[in-house]
Amino acid sequence: MTVTSPRKSITSVDSSALETLVGYNTRRASLVITEVFVERMAVHDLRMVEFSILSLVGHNPGITSRQLSSALSILPPNLVSLVNGIDKRGLVERQPHPVDGRAVGLHLTSAGETLLAEAEHTAAQLEMESTASLSAAERKTLIRLLQKIYRA
Amino acid sequence: MTVTSPRKSITSVDSSALETLVGYNTRRASLVITEVFVERMAVHDLRMVEFSILSLVGHNPGITSRQLSSALSILPPNLVSLVNGIDKRGLVERQPHPVDGRAVGLHLTSAGETLLAEAEHTAAQLEMESTASLSAAERKTLIRLLQKIYRA
DNA sequence: TATTGTTATACTCTATAACTATA
DNA sequence: TATAGTTATAGAGTATAACAATA
């Protein structure tokens, strides 16, 4: 005879299998931090990627689009409109590259310098906010372990 | 007089400012693991989200679409085509919910059980592969710290 | 009234091919 | 021949509004 197993409903979802995976946990944590980042950085009208570009240009005057592309794992075609956007907002300037006529060096304007300083302050705040459950030592350990993965 | 600062080119990119941020490091690590995941899981024709759904259905027989939506932070409309896809592949079955006439309980078929077992084996392997630079203790610590963030 | 599942739709993000100017 | 920057475009991921059926 055939026994049809009863179809029960579940109350709480068991995610323990997924939670054994580093990839799953990394993605969940990334989603939480990203959400806080987007909310708090909206006052500067900056998305995550725009903040990253501004930061790299600020700390690497003369950086090229190709170098940004490589450093942020963004494909060159997708960088065009991003750089155009912060250029039109008067945050960065394009200067001819000193040695390579094909390339263009990016530099922050004084408005860009000001906004980056404010945005970095906001970023530091929201970081502490979204990782408030971690001690300073744990935060340091977490960053070290994550870097071991993506620098490997 | 106006002094124009010389426009130099940079050789290596300094990302140290971004690297002080937990959010940046989490995202970079997530990108690396995701890349390995996509490559290795292609043999099962499973994307990350499809593996996650299969795992939750497998370990929570009778789970509803709404519960999946909540557990994976996927909006209900975006879950429809995903569940339809693995349904058409014969990996899951929809059964009427025992107590709620609006809901539908999801269950793995035997083909789904088989594929999930294989995919979980692949996932465990690629996890070790993409986090090979971590010791077992470090991997455990990393997961614990990440969970403190997204469970906060 | 509220919720489950769904359709339709729009917007963002990511990826590929191909072009131009220069190396 | 190769590389930097760009255009056009396609696909994947994520978002909101609104509907039918059921609670």
TrEMBL record, chains A, B:
It holds the Pfam family MarR_2. Keywords: DNA-binding. Residues 19-151 form the HTH marR-type domain. It comes from the Bacteria. This is DNA-binding MarR family transcriptional regulator. It comes from Rhodoferax ferrireducens. PROSITE patterns: HTH_MARR_2 (PS50995). GO terms for molecular function: DNA binding.
